[in-house]
From TrEMBL:
InterPro entries documented for this protein: NAD(P)-bd_dom_sf, NmrA-like, NmrA-like_oxidored
Coiled-coil segments on the chain, per record: 107-134
Alphabetic keyword roster: Coiled coil, NADP
Species the sequence originates in: Oceanobacillus arenosus
Record's protein name: NmrA-like domain-containing protein
Length: 300
């Protein structure tokens, strides 16, 4: 039995498509919410059991683990420790956890919580009494369609603004990964236990690029002539502090602005060696998302 969390979400739906494309034959138990759109699950043709519940409910998670051999936890890193504890209790053989490259950030708010979670998981793994094999995959900035929280915002900004402010001249490096590539990676890891058990992988895009170059590619795909205005990071932080003060602390963009000046590029070499990970180019991936954006606005 395969247990999956987050299968109706952004990357989860691409993992589901891989299961369908590869005619996965084993039983699958999917944790969903009452509000989840399960139409893709219902029409998948796979051997799927849906269980409705809350991942904050320890008793529910414990019951969901009954009879499970492998768990793929896509939904949220903050539930990973709970998932691992329940898996150990129920003698699950293998866990694949989807975490984040945000763990590498030099800024406390962005990384501290992630580091604590992985430290706790390592402590659970070190207990000689359990035999759970754990693989952790860490996607970088995820994009791919308009429900992402990253490039979709940038596409909208480039479309709406003729003059667009860019922190630090957009010189920081990013390496966005397309959700379609993540769906393929999750499936390949699932089917490659011998190669991936007990290992951690960073899953990034094909290669690093500057933030300003990403903006320029988006502008080109939108057929816009955007003027990009450099905003020194120091000035950006000052502006964020002013906004925080004026909002009485309710709006705090300080660390987000600081991270705009931070390089966020990560090697996926180990994933390529171990299971053939080969992500698409940013140019190809963003073209798909921009076209979706254009079609949506033409039809609205």
């Amino acid at each position: 039995m395969l247990l999956v969390t987050g299968i109706t979400g952004h990357t989860g739906k691409y993992f589901l498509q891989e299961l369908i494309n590869n005619k996965y034959e084993g039983p699958i138990r999917c944790i969903v919410r009452n509000t989840s759109n399960t139409s893709l699950l219902d029409n998948s043709g796979l051997n799927i059991e849906k269980v409705v519940g809350d991942l904050d409910d320890v008793e529910f998670i414990d019951k969901a683990m009954d009879g499970v051999k492998t768990v793929l936890h896509i939904y949220n890193i903050h539930h990973s420790s709970l998932i691992v504890r329940a898996a150990i209790k129920r003698n699950v053989k293998r866990a694949i956890l989807v975490h984040t490259t945000g763990i590498y950030s030099e800024f406390k708010h962005a990384s501290e919580g992630y580091k604590k979670i992985e430290q706790e998981i390592n402590e659970l793994k070190s207990d000689s009494k359990n035999s759970l094999e754990i693989t952790i995959v860490r996607p970088s900035m995820i994009y791919g369609d308009l429900c992402d929280r990253n490039m979709s915002k940038f596409i909208k900004l480039v479309d709406k603004l003729r003059i667009m402010p860019v922190i630090n001249g957009g010189n920081s490096l990013i390496q966005p990964v397309n959700a379609r590539d993540l769906g393929k990676a999750f499936f390949t890891v699932l089917m490659s236990p011998k190669e991936t058990n007990g290992k951690n992988y960073d899953l990034s895009g094909e290669k690093p690029l500057k933030m300003i170059d990403a903006y320029k590619i988006i502008s080109k795909e939108l057929n816009k002539k955007t003027v990009f205005l450099n905003v020194p990071i120091g000035l950006g932080v000052v502006m964020a502090k002013v906004i925080k003060a004026l909002s009485l602390g309710k709006v705090d963009y300080i660390e987000k602005v600081q991270r705009m000046g931070e390089d966020r590029n990560y090697s996926h070499k180990e994933a390529t060696i171990d299971f053939g990970y080969s992500p698409m180019t940013f140019e190809k991936g963003i073209q798909i998302e921009v076209q979706e954006y254009i079609e949506k606005h033409q039809n609205s």
